Amino acid sequence: MLAGVLLETIILLSIIILAASMLQTSTGFGFSIVATPFLLVIFEPREAIQMNLILSLVISIALIVKIKKDIDIGILKRFIVGSFVGLPIGISTFLMMNMTFLKLGVGALIMVLTLLLMLKFRIRQSRQRDMVIGGVSGAFTTGIGIPGPPILLYFSGTDTSKEKLRGTTLAFYLWIYAVSLIIQVMFAGTSKEIWQSSAAALPVVLIGLLLGQVLFRWISQELFRKLTYVLLFFSGIYLCIQQF
């Protein structure tokens, strides 16, 4: 599929994947939020979502050993338990519902909640809320291919440190992306072109991994928090304007 794409588009896509990979590696989130809009310009929704899942899974696998000391195992387990409910809901939504109205609603909700966080609204972390967020993130992953916003909103509202956020989020992504990819392939099908295009993007992802590790050491907690708000707003706006 990439053979038929203009050279300029391939270069732009490589830059976007590089930036998204660096962001995912340095913060624990961001690949889906940054890369998915551009993937959807070039590929069909099924292809864009599955490429996003494959490349994000590669990043999580590559980093899991390095970030395991920062993982909150208790929260991770509750996220996974909650995702068992959300995953089938997401794929059912992807296959059956009007995606335009769904994405408009989700995008608007993300922007409202981000504004509340910027106004110092805070959430008390609890076991039940951990499982609810895991379920919502699971539904987002199989439904629209973007699992990050629910977890970002939750962790930002509970003032979680950047180390714990990155470690726990990447560990959860290792689970959620693998299962979501299997569910997508089973119920929506796949193609050789999806895997070939993903393989072609891997060298760029690996470069992003290396640069992202360096970037993580430079990001302060305050800058991390502001970056979170920017990405959440971007994801909300993108989900809305994509429908027009």
TrEMBL record:
Q: Which residues form a coiled coil?
A: none
Keyword Transcription annotated: no
Q: Name one Pfam family in it.
A: TauE
Question: Keyword set for this entry?
Answer: Cell membrane, Membrane, Transmembrane, Transmembrane helix, Transport
The record's subcellular location field reads: Cell membrane
Membrane-spanning intervals of the chain = 12-43, 49-67, 79-95, 101-119, 131-155, 170-188, 200-218
Membrane topology annotation: Multi-pass membrane protein
The similarity annotation says:
Belongs to the 4-toluene sulfonate uptake permease (TSUP) (TC 2.A.102) family.
The protein's name is Probable membrane transporter protein
